[in-house]
Amino acid sequence: MASSGTSSFPGRWDVFLSFRGEDTRFNFTDHLYSALTSRGIHTFRDDEGLERGGEIQPSLLKAIEESKVSIVVFSKNYAHSQWCLDELYKIMESRREKGQIVVPVFYHVDPSDVRKQTGSFGKAFARYKKVTKERVLRWRAALTQAGGLSGWHVEHGYII
């Protein structure tokens, strides 16, 4: 999740991009970010360094809250990041409470794996034995909700 500046917000964001950096940063997400910004769409993506460490920073939470739309790029390792799952929970909360539009992109993953937490998403949850039950339940609910939304399925470089 690369740079667009996280310390100051010039106003409301048009789009917030959520993605697992190691999976899509230097390919799909960069192309998506470039396409959006070249059309004048004020798009937020967070800094690479933000994922290191503990909780989501207040500036990132504010960016989610101030966005009209969130695009969530679900990739093979998305659920392997507690950071991404916390971010998704906040996005789905903003959808519920503020009516934010959420558009999922299923990047080389089956939407049902996101919705049901199977495949690579199920493997990720098998690793979360030390995470509080409440937090895991929040993540699962957010994935189920987001996986049930209409979005794009990208497979072999094509939207299907």
Automatic annotation (TrEMBL):
Domain TIR: 11-160
Keyword Mitochondrion: no
Keywords for the protein's UniProt record, in alphabetical order: Cytoplasm, NAD, Nucleus
Location in or out of the cell: Cytoplasm; Nucleus
Main location: cytoplasm
InterPro entries according to UniProt: TIR_dom, Toll_tir_struct_dom_sf
UniProt-listed SUPFAM superfamilies: Toll/Interleukin receptor TIR domain
Top-level taxon of origin: Eukaryota
Pfam families documented for this protein: TIR
Annotated family: Belongs to the disease resistance TIR-NB-LRR family.
Entry protein name: TIR domain-containing protein
